[in-house]
Amino acid sequence: MYKITSEDKDLQKMVNKDRASLATTFSKNFEIQEKTLDLISKSIRHADFNRFDSNKIIWNVAGYVNILSYDLKVVVKNLVLAKEEWEKRYFVRQLALLAYEGMNDLLELLGKTFRRTRSTLSNHEKFIDELNTNVSRLNTFKSTREHSLKKIRNVSIAHRDRSSIEQLNVIYDITWSEGISIGTEFDQILNPIGGFLQNVINKSVVEFEELKTRNK
Questions:
Q1: What is the pLDDT of residues 77-102, one digit of tens each?
Q2: From the CB of residue 169, how many other CB atoms can be counted at a distance below 10 Å?
Q3: Is residue 216 part of a domain?
Q4: CB 211, CB 46: distance < 8 Å
Q5: What does pTM read for this prediction?
Q6: How many domains does the chain have?
Q7: CA 139 → CA 22, 35, 47, 116, 159, distances in Å?
Q8: Within a domain: residue 1?
Q9: What are the tens digits of pLDDT across the range 115-172?
Q10: Can you give the residue range of the structural domain that contains 116?
Q11: Which residue in 76, 61, 22, 93 sits closest to 185, CA to CA?
């Protein structure tokens, strides 16, 4: 019924051995995400109140990335620590929904408006190169994973095929280890984007004219 590979079995042994330490690591990561989102939320509201439009665009993208990253960590935690086969596949399905919609939204959010906002910063060619590198990673992930993510998303979680057999065929074909691999890949894409956005924010605080005018 369920597709269980040798990789799944090996991974299960590792998780069973390190379950407590894994749970602790996830909890520490959640604390960091909470603090980061609190800061971002306050910064977006501050930019909105003062009509710092360019600054708000950058903070908004940073907020989206951090919400996505936090959600991803929550899903992956539950996926990694799940014990029942159906439970594992449920969280892979949630992961497919999250990754599919997140990768497409990010490609739009990092598009023309964001690029135009950053073009006023000094040394913006360096930022463009870094942005292009991150977008390239996203596109590679999309080209590699989009078909399988879309199938899982459309048939078994976002829209749900009305044929229960079609749903079950997709669900039973999901492998736990592959789901964890997808989550790890996506996390490794989001983390550098977060670092890149932090660098842009640091630069914008010093150089955006709207902030200079306000601070005079």
A1: 999 999 999 999 999 999 999 999 99
A2: 13
A3: no
A4: no
A5: 0.92
A6: 1
A7: 30, 29, 30, 20, 24
A8: no
A9: 988 777 888 889 999 999 999 999 999 999 999 999 999 999 999 999 999 999 999 9
A10: 6-211
A11: 76
